[in-house]
Amino acid sequence: MKYRIFALVSLVALVGCAGYAKSVNRQAGIVPVRNFDATRYLGKWYELGRIENRFERGMTDTTAQYSLNRDGTIRVVNAGYDPAKGKVREAIGKAKFVETKDVGALKVSFFPPFYGGYDIVALDEDYQWAIVVGPNPNKYFWVLSRQSKLTQSLKKRALRAARDLHVDASKILWVSQQKARP
């Protein structure tokens, strides 16, 4: 009898985890961009601003490189310089579309089968900068640019997006890009 109860509880937990791995919750008010073109989004992006998080803590010169996988998913290579260790750290993951491919709503995994939300909430019409948030923008907020230098106009746009999402703008860390890497 104890075995059956244990098996049932284990099955329920496993199904719950599988469901969590496939879904991505989004905080109210987050609206991903429409008319998104993944092909134009591919390539290298410099992270110019973020809310500090455990997986990038203390890092500078952070970048994200996106390329298309054969199966239609997007390969994600995040890299940054860790001054405490004196070296570049890199994480490789995979992104999948949550909705249709023309909506900037993706989920990203660096540890399958677990995915986190990746919503592009603002995007330059020429794909030169983007504002990206996770399920909770007060914990996951990024300012990406094709250029390694933060312009005042992009900073103002990022602060406006933060305000619109009720993000505490004082938590945004403006990332140094002094060690330009190819």
Automatic annotation (TrEMBL):
Localization per Swiss-Prot or TrEMBL = Cell outer membrane
SUPFAM superfamilies from the xrefs? Lipocalins
GTP-binding as a keyword of this entry, yes or no, is no
Q: What GO molecular-function term can you cite, just one?
A: lipid binding
InterPro entries from the entry? Calycin, Lipocalin_ApoD, Lipocalin_bac, Lipocalin_Blc-like_dom, Lipocalin_CS, Lipocln_cytosolic_FA-bd_dom
Tell me, what's a Pfam family for it? Lipocalin_2
Could you list this entry's UniProt keywords, alphabetically sorted.
Cell outer membrane, Lipid-binding, Lipoprotein, Membrane, Palmitate, Signal
Spell out the Gene3D superfamilies in the cross-references. 2.40.128.20
Query: Which residues are modified by lipidation (S-diacylglycerol cysteine)?
Result: C17
Query: Which residues are in the Lipocalin/cytosolic fatty-acid binding domain?
Result: 37-177
* Cellular component, GO, one term: cell outer membrane
**What is said about its interaction partners and assembly?**
Homodimer.
Biological role stated in the UniProt entry: Involved in the storage or transport of lipids necessary for membrane maintenance under stressful conditions. Displays a binding preference for lysophospholipids.
Please report the name of this protein according to its UniProt entry.
Outer membrane lipoprotein Blc
